[in-house]
């Protein structure tokens, strides 16, 4: 390699970028230390709030010919949690812990909707689909996600009603399992004629 400093810069940049993002894998559990926004504050307040910067990430770069023959977009649709823009404000550690639990629910809920999106992309992508074929159902899925997340936040008081949150969370995990064929690393199952 002609320029080892360039390689080192690229390596360090990609490592720091990757340390900021958590890709959903079904095993990692969100922790209080993952809320790295400067807005995070535990103690010295009577308020509590949470901003989990997680959501569906959809990006691809390919030629028109590649796009034409690509059916499996699963690997292009991710679910990430961004540490640097996630924050918790809580009066104490107990409430902070309930907010962290709610954030894990949100991260799993986001994966459920990423899987619903992967499924819809697979079903709707035709041989002559335009690059924007996904936009209408992406918007629909985002709307459903926000509505369900907002209702869960109200119903559980952002996770402070632990029993109710646990019940909602189990339902989400069950739905994720029902869509197991649509994980990020899953291959498209061909339809039998």
Q: Could you state the oligomeric state of the chains shown?
A: single chain
Report the principal-axis shape. Answer: elongated
If you compute it from the alpha carbons, what radius of gyration comes out, rounded to the nearest whole angstrom? 19 Å
Let me know the number of strands.
6
Can you summarize the main beta sheet? 3 strands, antiparallel
Number of domains: 1
Q: Portion of residues in helices?
A: 40-55%
Strand order of the largest sheet: 1-5-4
| Unreliable stretches covering 5 or more consecutive residues | 1-17
Structural class: mainly alpha
Give a brief rundown of this model:
This protein is mainly α and 193 residues long.
Written account of the structure:
By secondary structure, the protein is mainly alpha-helical. The protein has one domain. It has five helices and six strands; from the N terminus they run αββββαββααα. The strands form two sheets. A three-stranded antiparallel beta sheet has the order 1-5-4. α3 packs antiparallel against α4 and α3 runs parallel beside α5. It is elongated, with a radius of gyration of 19 Å. The N terminus is likely disordered.
Task: Show the helix and strand layout.
Blueprint: H1 4-20, E1 21-23, E2 41-42, E3 49-51, E4 54-58, H2 64-69, E5 77-82, E6 87-90, H3 93-124, H4 135-156, H5 162-178
Parallel strand pairs: 2-6
Antiparallel strand pairs: 1-5, 3-6, 4-5
Helix pairs in contact: 3-4, 3-5
List keywords for this structure.
3-stranded mixed β-sheet, mainly alpha, 3-stranded antiparallel β-sheet, elongated, 193 residues
């Amino acid at each position: 390699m002609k320029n080892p400093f360039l390689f080192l810069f690229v390596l360090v940049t990609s490592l720091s970028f990757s340390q900021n993002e958590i890709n959903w894998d079904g095993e990692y559990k969100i922790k209080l230390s993952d809320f790295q926004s400067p807005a995070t504050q535990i103690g010295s307040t009577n308020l509590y709030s949470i901003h989990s910067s997680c959501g569906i990430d959809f990006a691809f770069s390919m030629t028109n010919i590649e796009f034409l023959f690509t059916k499996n977009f699963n690997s292009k649709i991710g679910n990430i949690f961004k540490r640097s823009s996630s924050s918790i404000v809580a009066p104490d550690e107990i409430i902070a812990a309930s907010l962290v639990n709610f954030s894990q629910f949100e991260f799993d809920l986001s994966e459920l909707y990423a899987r619903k999106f992967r499924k819809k992309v697979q079903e709707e992508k035709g041989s002559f689909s335009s690059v924007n074929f996904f936009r209408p159902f992406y918007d629909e899925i985002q709307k459903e996600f926000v509505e369900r997340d907002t209702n869960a936040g109200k119903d559980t008081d952002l996770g402070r009603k632990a029993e109710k949150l646990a019940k909602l969370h189990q339902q989400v995990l069950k739905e994720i399992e029902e869509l197991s064929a649509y994980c990020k690393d899953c291959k498209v199952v061909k339809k039998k004629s």
